[in-house]
Amino acid sequence: xxxxxxxxxxxxxxxxxxxxxxxxxxxxxxxxxxxxxxxxxxxxxxxxxxxxxxxxxxxxxxxxxxxxxxxxxxxxxxxxxxxxxxxxxxxxxxxxxxxxxxxxxxxxxxxxxxxxxxxxxxxxxxxxxxxxxxxxxxxxxxxxxxxxxxxxxxxxxxxxxxxxxxxxxxxxxxxxxxxxxxxxxxxxxxxxxxxxxxxxxxxxxxxxxxxxxxxxxxxxxxxxxxxxxxxxxxxxxxxxxxxxxxxxxxxxxxxxxxxxxxxxxxxxxxxxxxxxxxxxxxxxxxxxxxxxxxxxxxxxxxxxxxxxxxxxxxxxxxxxxxxxxxxxxxxxxxxxxxxxxxxxxxxxxxxxxxxxxxxxxxxxxxxxxxxxxxxxxxxxxxxxxxxxxxxxxxxxxxxxxxxxxxxxxxxxxxxxxxxxxxxxxxxxxxxxxxxxxxxxxxxxxxxxxxxxxxxxxxxxxxxxxxxxxxxxxxxxxxxxxxxxxxxxxxxxxxxxxxxxxxxxxxxxxxxxxxxxxxxxxxxxxxxxxxxxxxxxxxxxxxxxxxxxxxxxxxxxxxxxxxxxxxxxxxxxxxxxxxxxxxxxxxxxxxxxxxxxxxxxxxxxxxxxxxxxxxxxxxxxxxxxxxxxxxxxxxxxxxxxxxxxxxxxxxxxxxxxxxxxxxxx
Length: 664
Description:
Low-confidence stretches: none
Shape: globular
Structural class: alpha/beta
Strand order of the largest sheet: 5-6-7-2-1-8-9-12-13
């Protein structure tokens, strides 16, 4: 008979498992934490916090549970083994946000979630990669609805309840006429080290402490301070901690100021500014995610002089020559962070094939702009695929289906109709339960009805309200007696984006209209957990941006791996992946007038939904989804499965962009 596990041993084991964010994708660790009691009905606490707040009664029960103790030991033994960092191959990945988990609220949307998936895939491939960002005490806003309006609230985060550990590093940074100090937190995402700089220190005055307060919430000057801290401070931090990366990867232009630290080192050796730029170029990789000029960080000349003048004086560099590196030819005199990054990076890429074309056109006049290539974004499959579906894949495709192994997906015909229907039904029920919980009341969603999902940032170009173009046609689809359709929406508008908030209000208003029959809903509190439930519960994923303004759009990739079929404008990743059978394409209008374009594309959307999608889902036999639908799902997996994973993406970065082999 096995001895009872001591509380000290069990608590230590649990905290070590909670201290590595591999629990966000490891099924065994997720099952372990699902068995720990929630506190006061709040199930969204980080496992590290839940463990520390357990009662004596809880500990008594857990230490007497031999099965739980064995599961804890197994999860601990399966923790990813640390990599021996080799500075000849290490990549330092800089990003303003990281969407590792909804319980580490350091992300706002797609850019951050992509960054989190990048770290996880690097761990899966055992690629020597470390990551650098900022720790935002108040994170990004939590969303609530009041009278149909989005309301933002902020919650102060305790880093020690988020499995962050203080490092000995302290970074000092001159921000105009102020000296600011930052500490550096560390956490592990599998084998990947993530370092986050934090200025909320007693040694700083109120100005200094607020530099890293919130994500994307300040004015332009506040944004510049944060980007200098992340870039210059980030390089200093990892150097203090003993790392000398071979490559610096800029995930968007927000971290571009790291080049200042690298340039300073070369200028200090006696090189001119031009020579220094040439010297650092081979070490910098730049990924642009922005297909429109309005989405690029730009800073006014007076702001640049205020903050970079100190740097130029210190290193004897002509400030005007430095500022020219960020001027977009044919533009104004504002410092363009993307143009700067294109000039100082040896390799630049967009995030889909189409976005690469758009980026080359955007930066054609910038030296290096015509050489921008593309690496299409992917998603971390073990994070985003429903656990029940993962178990089916593990059984039928083998345990490595989430890795770059195309052959695994050729086995999808071994998954029976009944297995798929069972997983789909379970996912639908859990999504409906989640929707009821988020809304605080029972919805009228029906688990047997064709369900269309839409969840993303409410930016105007994404046209969340395109479905509302013709209410009569929409309600006829919702209330069809034989082939009804229901719609589930979620997403956030940036606090300063009033047009985006208007889109959200339009969706919420129709959701409350009796004409929607309670089968067109908006789920508030959008985060990664809400998104996962939707991917598992929706049959079709809708995406209708204005082409070509969607750089990639990975939400559709997440739905695809869960068995959802994409119904999208041919933009972003869908433009290169749609083969005519693995989903549906919404044809793009050629009308010059935006309103006419929207009307035409909405009409086509209704046509395809009513004439092709609903009939295939329901069929004549009364069993939905039909066998023909499920064959289309299998074709979706067979054609998209090998491509949409982040492991394919990171492997491609390693071989083509970093020129660093995974697994080294």
